[in-house]
């Protein structure tokens, strides 16, 4: 498979429920720092474009062991450069997103990751 270009936004939905609708609690390790997609064999780009993406949102499902219930929360990077945690009507500034993403409960609840392509990133 080859692509002429990669999308500006990349949304990754993780398989969190098995065929019986039971929750899969495998830990997912994520960092807010840039990731380089050139390591994926399926990414073959016909033109030279940046393959670096940075995380700007995380959706999480917690609570229930089945798909029929539970609670959805999210982390989001705002235009002011700060990360926020959204849970119903509560909004909280996150001081260190990478520290939050290292939490075992968070890693087991990550459901959707939102990435934005970056032209240049400091590694």
3D structure, described in words:
The chain is globular and about 40 Å long. A hairpin with a 2-residue loop joins strand 5 and strand 6. The longest helix is centred in the last third of the chain and has 6 residues, at 104-109. Helices cover 9% and strands 36% of the residues. Strands 1, 2, 3, 4, 5, 6 and 7 form a 7-stranded antiparallel β-sheet that branches. The model has no long low-confidence stretch (mean pLDDT 82). With 123 residues, the chain is mostly beta strands. The protein has 2 helices and 7 strands, in the order E-E-E-E-E-E-H-H-E.
Distance between the termini: 28 Å
Number of helices: 2
Q: Hey, roughly how much beta strand do the residues contain?
A: 35-45%
Summarize the main sheet. 7 strands, antiparallel
Q: Would you report the number of β strands?
A: 7
């Amino acid at each position: 498979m080859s692509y002429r270009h990669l999308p500006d936004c990349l949304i990754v939905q993780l398989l969190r429920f098995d065929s019986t609708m039971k929750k899969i609690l495998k830990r997912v390790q994520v960092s807010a720092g840039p990731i380089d997609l050139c390591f994926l064999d399926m990414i073959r780009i016909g033109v030279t474009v940046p393959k670096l993406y940075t995380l700007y949102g995380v959706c999480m499902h917690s609570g229930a062991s089945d798909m029929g219930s539970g609670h959805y929360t999210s982390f989001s990077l705002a235009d002011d450069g700060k990360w926020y945690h959204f849970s119903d009507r509560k909004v909280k500034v996150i001081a260190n997103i990478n520290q939050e993403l290292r939490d075992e409960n968070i890693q087991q609840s990550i459901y959707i990751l939102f990435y934005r392509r970056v032209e240049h990133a400091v590694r």
